[in-house]
Design brief:
The chain has about 425 residues and is mainly α. The chain contains 17 helices and five strands.
């Protein structure tokens, strides 16, 4: 990210482990409710130090007459015609506050939820609350999780049956590392980042998701896991490993047999170290470009990691891959992303638009944000409604994770629209 020409937010800070020297200390809460903050106003001033080498372009921008003045934005006819369809600042703020309030209502003073022994309830809470300014609840959740599920050296210790029943364990760790990093809990983030590294295939750059697969040296390597695990490694200064994850995502694109039909999201790693695309058209492992409500959120972490690797390295291959994953959805059937499970795709769109501004990215982001706000339940939570989901009997685990995803997507959208 070019620090000389963009505002930095909490989300931005985690994209710069090697490009800048950072000393960031998030604010500690003074009361029970820290509140919702506009991430565009969280500026790294007194608590952040950057090493900046100004380019001639940046110097020219500062020196030319009137450089500090902002030109008025010319509104297009499309803006005027469709403005009422998209959320305004008050609707967005109310939605984020309501979602955070619902999560907080599930937690006791210790940070525990009603099913305290289920680790899967907690992974996403710290990050989703922190990016919305609710640091006190995020800290409480991290404290509870550390006391219940982390060993003496910071290693993850969850019941074996829980680990075996989930196919996203490394992805889950990525969320926790990312959230702990935002909160400055590096005592949690750094040991868990080492844990993530142990699940990475050094040849392909992808990640296994289960301890049993790791033991056998074979299993599924999913794009969504590579995206969020890579993002967690990037935020904890494991840049080379994060780049291997990005290269895995690029290679996955090259393996697609029929990209005009859709994208397969996983590869199968065999015990003989060979790898092949997992050709299963399930709602988890395939994005059908001709279908409706296709869970594009699975591509959100992919987009974010690739964009941040481009910002860090200036390697065009990362930006081109981010565009291809995004275009696979945006050029698909109308309605392909009209679902709650577009939340993390919204995050990816906002990041991609910052480095490659295009009108269709902006309009798609506004359409998704409006859909999410319309779909929010009166009590503040979100329920999934995409293909393969939408079950009226959704578990607390699923509803909580969906709500956390939506909060992160809308927080990124709010930060982006405030720039």
């Amino acid at each position: 990210m070019g620090v000389t020409d963009k505002k930095a937010t909490i989300i931005d800070l985690l994209a710069m482990p090697e490009a800048a020297e950072i000393d960031f200390e998030p604010p500690r809460p003074e009361g029970k409710l820290y509140g919702t903050v506009d991430l565009s106003d969280v500026r790294p001033q007194s608590h952040c130090r950057y090493r900046i080498e100004k380019t001639e372009v940046a110097q020219h921008r500062q020196e030319r007459p009137g450089a500090g003045k902002q030109r008025p934005r010319i509104e297009s006819p499309l803006d005027a015609r469709e403005r009422s369809r998209f959320p305004d600042d008050h609707q967005l703020s109310d939605s984020l506050k309501s979602g955070c309030r619902w999560i907080r209502s599930l937690m006791d003073k210790r940070g525990s939820i009603r099913n305290p022994d289920h680790a899967s309830l907690y992974y996403k809470i710290p990050g989703s609350l922190a990016v919305n300014g609710a640091f006190d609840a995020a800290f409480s959740c991290l404290d509870w999780f550390a006391s219940r599920f982390l060993g003496d050296h910071g290693q993850l210790e969850i019941p074996l049956e829980q680990e075996a029943s989930r196919f996203t364990n490394t992805y889950d760790r990525g969320w926790l590392v990312w959230g702990a990093g935002i909160c400055g809990r590096y005592d949690i983030a750094f040991p868990l980042a080492q844990d993530i590294l142990s699940y990475q295939d050094r040849e392909s750059g992808g990640f296994l998701d289960r301890a049993a697969d790791l033991k056998e040296g074979a299993g599924v390597q999913h794009a969504m896991t590579a995206g969020f695990a890579g993002l967690a490694l990037l935020s904890s200064r494991h840049v080379a490993a994060a780049r291997r994850a990005g290269d895995f995502l690029i290679d996955l694109l090259k393996l697609q047999p029929h990209p005009d039909e859709g994208i397969y999201l996983a590869a199968n790693r065999r015990a003989d170290c060979t790898q092949a695309l997992l050709l299963e058209r399930t709602s988890r492992d395939f994005v059908d470009r001709k279908g409706l409500k296709q869970r594009p959120a699975r591509l959100g972490p992919v987009q974010v990691l690739l964009v941040r690797l481009f910002r860090l390295t200036r390697k065009q291959r990362y930006l081109e891959a981010a565009r291809k994953y995004t275009e696979a959805v945006l050029t698909g059937r109308d309605g392909i992303y009209d679902c709650v499970e577009s939340h993390k795709f919204l995050w990816g769109l906002t990041e991609l638009h910052q480095v490659s501004p295009q009108e269709r990215y902006r309009l798609a982001a506004r359409r998704i944000a409006a859909y999410l706000i319309r779909s929010q339940r009166p009590d503040g939570q979100w329920w999934g409604d995409a293909v393969g989901g939408g079950d009226p009997g959704q578990s607390l685990d699923l509803r909580l994770n969906t709500t956390c995803n939506a909060l992160v997507g809308l927080a990124a959208y709010r930060s982006w629209t405030g720039r």
